[in-house]
Specification:
The protein is of the alpha+beta class and 412 residues long. It has eight helices and 19 strands. α3 packs across α4.
């Protein structure tokens, strides 16, 4: 029988220690694998803010909606969403926040009291998913919020029709992401327009996803804050910040916040009391806005309102814009168009300190938390960045009367 020597024992211990060290380094490397996320506003396709200046009256509404449909037609929705799918293919984010995934339908004229139009003219959600599928990109919708559903008269293709505008925000997840649960809702504060005895309010919302990306747990939230009222926007930012306080770290908040460097900053400042600006720290540039018709030859981005914010020990090792360079434009009929009036943001996040334990649950049940009531707003901003499909629906439906603004509950 061979006798173990002290030298052999020490050598064995050293070898084991070496293997343990290698394993530890591999573990640390694995813990620091990046999680790539993105935010993308798909843009309805027309400059809608001038609707606020429209005079009251059915014919004025009809003209405004007719012009809106024509503008969306000229924006070449299908080609633009193909370009967005191409961006996702090049950057391969695990989780994506999508804003303004609009659904536009038409139908025979009716009394307008209840949206009934069913003929789909544009479905941004399904068109984007089809473009992703054509590229064999395995993304799926894991959470969605509907924030507007308004039907108004118009002339479409030479015929008298009703046009129904439904605005939606989405979270897309790559197949490598396991989803443990989702929560969706609308904010207590919202923007309203009224004329006479008619008041129309359009909510903004959020989607929160408990996810596991390559074995790492992360809470991911997407939102689109109000564009037309600074006060409402700050109230929404405060509510969202507070709703996310009890979510386990790390938390990643993305979206079109209509607030940030280069523009109105109050809502951004409210969010960054609890979140770090990861993309901003990584040097990402302005994201808003290209010309409303998307045909400006050079970038016209001046403010950074599309964000990747983080809470917990996360930092961005890389952040970049998509749809911000002239080479990102699409060519249609001899013209070049930007994919959206916004640039998107893609950021790769890594732990900066102690890694967060990974969740292994793959439960499929979804918890939906939807707010109720009728929120209103308190002030308008004629120069708000990124007007948005939801606010457009408000403008259309209210025929742009006097803006009224109160917080939900102020009259209780």
């Amino acid at each position: 029988m061979r006798r173990a020597t002290r030298r052999g024992v020490l050598a064995g211990i050293g070898g084991a220690a070496g293997l343990a060290a290698v394993g530890s380094e591999r573990g640390r490397a694995q813990d620091r694998r990046g999680v790539t996320v993105a935010t993308r506003n798909c843009y309805l396709g027309g400059d809608l803010f001038d609707l606020f200046a429209a005079a009251a009256g059915d014919e004025t509404i009809r003209s405004a909606v007719t012009d809106l449909v024509a503008a969306v037609d000229r924006s070449r929705v299908g080609r633009r969403l193909d370009a967005v799918a191409g961006e996702l293919g090049r950057t391969e984010p695990a989780l994506v926040g999508i804003q303004e995934a609009a659904l536009i339908r038409t139908g025979p004229p009716d009394d307008g009291t209840t949206p009934t139009a069913t003929d789909v003219r544009y479905d941004f959600r399904e068109r984007l998913l089809s473009a992703l599928d054509a590229r064999n990109l395995p993304y799926r919708v894991v959470a969605a919020t509907e924030t507007a559903d308004v039907e108004l008269p118009a002339t479409v293709d030479g015929e008298s029709r009703d046009v129904r505008l439904t605005d939606r925000d989405l979270v897309l997840a790559h197949d490598r992401v396991a989803v443990d649960g989702t929560t969706t809702g609308t904010f207590d504060a919202g923007f309203s327009l009224s004329e006479g005895d008619r008041t129309v309010t359009v909510d903004r919302g959020y989607e929160v996803v408990a996810a596991s990306v390559d074995g790492r747990a992360v809470t991911f939230c997407n939102t689109h804050l109000e564009s037309a009222s600074a006060e409402v926007r700050v109230a929404q930012a405060t509510e969202l910040r507070d709703r996310l306080l009890d979510r386990p770290d790390p938390v990643v908040l993305v979206g079109d916040c209509n607030s940030g460097p280069g523009g109105s900053t109050a809502a951004y400042d409210r969010l960054t009391t609890a979140f770090d600006d990861a993309a901003g720290s990584a040097g990402v540039g302005a994201t808003c806005c290209h010309a409303a018709d998307l045909r400006n030859a050079t970038p016209s981005l001046e403010s950074r309102i599309d964000h990747v914010l983080v809470r917990g020990e996360l930092g961005a090792v890389e952040a970049t814009r998509v749809g911000a360079e002239p080479t990102d434009r699409i060519e249609v009929g001899g013209e070049r168009l930007w994919p959206s009036d916004h640039a998107g943001v893609v950021a790769t996040l890594v732990p900066t300190e102690t890694p967060t334990p990974a969740s292994t649950s793959t439960a499929t049940e979804t918890e939906t938390e939807t707010e109720t009531g009728t929120p209103t707003a308190t002030e308008t901003e004629a120069d708000a960045d990124g007007f948005g499909a939801a606010a457009a629906a408000v403008a259309l439906a209210a025929s742009v009367g006097a803006a009224v603004a109160t917080r939900r509950g102020d009259d209780d």
